[in-house]
Write a structure and sequence with these properties.
The complex is a heterodimer. Chain A is mostly beta strands. The chains are: A mainly beta, B mainly beta. At the A-B interface, strand 4, strand 5, strand 9 and strand 10 of A face strand 5, strand 9 and strand 10 of B.
Chain lengths: ~120, ~110
């Protein structure tokens, strides 16, 4: 089945530094990647949607200069949290939608999530 | 915009049946998903409804009424491992998936 590998699973960084989170689709092409953020005991909040080779579409209230999304290939998308601050501490999850080599469509496959702590 | 509502918390007894409701108001409705999420983990897919009616899959069933903007997830023969958050998610347009607030279910002996 479709698998999305997300790394790192946990990261602790100092305030003011940048952190990059990677999501790779295994055995299928992620034509669309979604990035979510989740606060403790809350549901997933869609941050942005990216299609391979084009700029990401950000949801209202999400700063595009702070959360840089790159989706340069059909198997890799990255989210970079720039100049991180303690309020950016959260659980970040990617979700990929795409097709396999035979052209079969896959539904939404989630990565395992990244817990970011900014100190 | 999207507006998706679920109860915040529910408690049920092991072996019992529980129904988790979800109401939504959305433009471009194109299907509804239910996911299970354990604390600190990614959501796992449970069910998908795009047409009205009941979809049954083992102990879990999901119902959709598009005219009422309403869905429910039914869990039968509850087990302790079913304690988790259950997320209702609406697909709007071609791709975007928007999540409800999630329902944290606690199963007690």
């Amino acid at each position: 089945g479709a698998v999305v590998s997300q790394h790192p699973s946990r990261v602790i960084c100092k305030s003011g530094t940048s952190v990059k989170i990677e999501c790779r689709s295994l055995d299928f092409q992620a034509t669309t990647m979604f990035w979510y953020r989740q606060f403790p005991k809350k549901s997933l909040m869609l941050m942005a949607t990216s299609n391979e080779g084009s700029k990401a579409t950000y949801e209202q209230g999400v700063e595009k200069d702070k959360f840089l999304i790159n989706h340069a290939s059909l198997t890799l998308s990255t989210l970079t949290v720039t100049s991180a601050h303690p309020e950016d501490s959260s659980f970040y999850i990617c979700s990929a939608k795409g097709r396999d080599r035979q052209g079969e469509n896959y539904g939404y496959t989630f990565g395992s999530g990244t817990r970011l702590t900014v100190v | 915009g999207q507006n998706i509502d679920q109860p915040t918390e529910m408690t049920a007894t092991e072996g019992a049946i529980v129904q988790i409701n979800c109401t939504y108001q959305t433009s471009g409705f194109n299907g509804l998903f239910w996911y299970q999420q354990h604390a600190g983990e990614a959501p796992t897919f449970l069910s998908y409804n795009v047409l009205d009616g009941l979809e049954e899959k083992g102990r879990f069933s999901s119902f959709l009424s598009r005219s009422k903007g309403y869905s429910y997830l039914l869990l039968k023969e509850l087990q302790m491992k079913d304690s988790a958050s259950y997320l209702c998610a609406v697909k709007a347009g071609a791709n975007n998936l928007f999540f409800g607030t999630g329902t944290r279910l606690t199963v007690i002996p």
